[in-house]
Amino acid sequence: MALDRFNPLLRTNDLVQDLKWDRDLRARFEADEAQVLADYPLSDEERTAIRERDFRRLHELGLHPYLLSQLARLIHGTGEKAGTSQAATELIRSLLGDQYESYMAERGE
Fold first, then answer.
1. N or C: which end of the chain has fewer CB within 10 A?
2. CB-hemisphere CA count at 13 Å for 29?
3. DSSP string, 69-98
4. pTM exceeds 0.85
């Protein structure tokens, strides 16, 4: 999947980024996905594609390929059920060094 279809103005890009980083929003999404989708200025096509788990359509609409994979992880879960992986956690831990624990505390994790 190349970036040939990427549309930086597609609001689903914002939604996925927010879901990825906002623990409370993820909990709300799991509890009441329809309400979270209604709260975002998404097109009807975007909402339908998300509800139907139509990742191909989201790609065609312009969702960034990286965020497409993140949305799949957020919806279908990973070991941590947080849209991340052990590899990503270790990367962040390495990059932040001594600041890792305070960073995670700020995120509430």
1. C
2. 24
3. HHHHHHHH--TTSSS--HHHHHHHHHHHGG
4. no
DSSP letters spanning 38-74:
HHS---HHHHHHHHTT-HHHHHHHT--HHHHHHHHHH
Residue 17 lies in domain: 3-107
Q: Within its chain, how far is the Cα of 23 from the centroid? A: 11
We report the CATH number of the domain holding residue 12 as 1.10.700.10
pLDDT in tens, 3-14: 888 999 999 999
Task: Note the pLDDT tens digit of each residue in 57-81.
Answer: 999 999 998 898 888 888 876 645 5
Report which of 40, 88, 48, 86 is spatially closest to residue 66, judged by C-alpha positions: 88
Domain count, the chain: 1
Is 87 within 8 Å of 29 (Cβ atoms)? no
Length of the chain in terms of residues written: 109
